[in-house]
């Protein structure tokens, strides 16, 4: 099944545009697990158990696993999600970008080793750095466009010779000539709703992965108003605000409550603009 179809089905089934980001930090683990990098899988698996009927997607960020020498636990987690939450797509947040030959290897890592449904990519090195991922039929390729961090403006807001800002140019390419097999989507931060609205204008039907609500302070209503369209899906991602909603043995229940209230806020905002 194509990433976009899996996403739509999960979104309908769970009545959700919420993506839970899986960014495990052992220093923030509860109780006896605190500081134990051997508990990365267990921690994330309990979060998945508690949220699998509330989300439209999961987004593990690979750095949190690699930094703990926990890539094997990420493989185990990907298999676990496929087993206990079949039909919920998994976006590997890796932000890869390299020459074609190396991109082939990164694509194998994302889609063969981890069997992700989609991967985040930096478009900075151009189309030939994205093309190798397109050999993996139906997988989602989510290009950084207007990132959620303040420093994203340093390059992404630069005006090009044709008058477009760089992020506008990326949105046009992704909605146009680069999107050869309909696999492309864009990352746009919730922290910049005006730019999010501009990206939606330029790419009316592309799925938008939107990090920046929760710990980064992005506003849910402004995000939905700018980004959601009936035929333009949004995947609104929150990591720390869900994962660490509770610090005790009830951390998974607290994560579920945080996911439920975030989903409800997203759905209320969608109902208001529908
Ligand atoms: O522009 C971007 C692109 C990716 N991210 C990633 O999303 C999560 C955000 O975590 P929170 O705890 O919800 O702030 C994290 O994995 C980032 O690497 C982003 O924040 N902004």
At CATH level 2, the architecture is Alpha-Beta Barrel
Which fold does the CATH topology refer to? Answer: TIM Barrel
Low-confidence stretches: none
End-to-end distance, in Å?
Answer: 28 Å
- Small molecules bound in the structure, each named once: the ligand O=c1ccn([C@@H]2O[C@H](COP(=O)(O)O)[C@@H](O)[C@H]2O)c(=O)[nH]1
Assign a percent range to the helix content: 40-55%
CATH class: Alpha Beta
Number of domains: 1
Overall morphology? globular
Strands, count: 8
- Determine the strand fraction and express it as a percent band: 5-15%
Overall pLDDT level: 98
Tally of contiguous helical segments: 11
Structural class: alpha/beta
Using the CA coordinates, give the radius of gyration. Answer: 18 Å
| Major β-sheet profile | 8 strands, parallel
Following the backbone from N to C, one meets helices and strands in this order, namely HEHEHHEHEEHHEHEHEHH
User: How is the largest sheet built, in terms of strand order?
Assistant: 2-1-8-7-6-5-4-3
The CATH homologous superfamily: Aldolase class I
Pfam families: OMPdecase
InterPro entries: Aldolase_TIM, OMPdecase_AS, OMPdecase_type-2, OMPdeCOase_dom, RibuloseP-bd_barrel
Protein name: Orotidine 5'-phosphate decarboxylase
Organism: Scleromatobacter humisilvae
